[in-house]
UniProtKB/TrEMBL annotation:
Its EC number is 3.6.5.2. The keyword Aminoacyl-tRNA synthetase does not apply. It comes from the Eukaryota. Signal peptide: none annotated. It comes from Oreochromis niloticus (Nile tilapia). GO terms for molecular function: G protein activity; GTP binding; metal ion binding. Belongs to the small GTPase superfamily. Rab family. The gene is RAB26. This is small monomeric GTPase. It catalyses: GTP + H2O = GDP + phosphate + H(+). InterPro entries: P-loop_NTPase, Small_GTP-bd, Small_GTPase. It is an enzyme of class 3 (hydrolase). PANTHER family: PTHR47978.
Length: 238
């Protein structure tokens, strides 16, 4: 920033400045004997995959996170796979999340399988108003163990928590299943925005911690972080 300001106000300096692209250091500038390093804008890139039955709200969750909006109206099923990027700032570190929105329909399963291997984190969704989507979580977890990397971060999300009348899966049932499989859990709503930002932030924090952790630093506890953040926000946040 300082260098850019200086360049704007000092035409002469700008003229003197030579931009040099070294083989592997594209952000290096030189001025006489001085070398400037431009700040690196994105410290690392992580792939996050959204999985779960068709209609649980994967696309809506992504749109809510990326654009802060809710896709109401007719439901258009994802075909194959789609992706969006979002850069998050975690303790002054820029984390670029490449989020893959997969099709929940059975006929696209072979496409999804091909992407598991490269995913660093998986957000596994069920719909709290659809019992079958909850019952299928076990099958999804089996599939994840089969195709994804062993150390992939998995988080279970009970989506559509804004719906009260038609709810058929209690929060406690989601918690119990998550405990059984040792994965963090929370309820979300793409419609109201409940916990959407938190779900992605928690995953980004875990990934940042894994990548940049000092050898003697304690492990990041994802579920503890989520619980603490929810308590601080008075149970729910949007
Ligand atoms: N009430 C409520 N409805 C939601 C929520 N999230 C999604 N929906 C609705 O659920 C339907 C399916 O949402 P999608 O996001 O398209 O579902 P999907 O999981 O991406 O479906 P596939 O692309 O087929 O895998 C749409 O009609 C949405 O409007 C939510 O949090 N609350």
């Amino acid at each position: 920033k300082c260098l850019k300001k200086c360049l704007k106000s000092h035409q002469k300096t700008r003229e003197l400045l030579l931009k040099t692209y070294f083989a592997n250091h594209k952000n290096v500038w030189s001025l006489g004997s001085l070398t400037f390093y431009e700040p690196i804008h994105c410290h690392f890139l992580s792939q996050v995959m959204l999985v779960g039955d068709s209609g649980v709200g994967k696309t809506c969750l992504l749109v809510r996170f990326k654009d802060g909006a809710f896709l109401a109206g007719s439901f258009i099923s994802t075909v194959g796979i789609d992706f969006r990027n979002k850069v998050m700032s975690i303790d002054a570190v820029k984390v670029k999340l490449q989020i893959w929105d997969t099709a929940g329909q059975e006929r696209f399963r072979s496409v999804t399988h091909a992407y598991y291997r490269d995913a660093h984190a998986l957000l596994l969704l069920y719909d709290v108003t659809n019992k079958a989507s909850f019952d299928n979580i076990r099958a999804w977890l089996t599939e994840i163990h089969e195709y994804a990397q062993q150390d992939v971060v998995v988080m279970l999300l009970g989506n559509k928590a804004d719906v009260t009348h038609d709810r058929v899966v209690k929060r406690e049932e989601g918690e119990k299943l998550a405990k059984e499989f040792g994965v963090p859990f929370m309820e979300t709503s793409a419609k109201s925005g409940l916990n959407v930002e938190l779900a992605f932030t928690a995953v980004a924090r875990e990934l940042k911690h894994r990548t940049m952790k000092e050898p003697d630093e304690p492990k990041f506890q994802l579920q503890e972080y989520v619980d603490k953040e929810m308590r601080t926000a008075g149970c729910c946040r949007s």
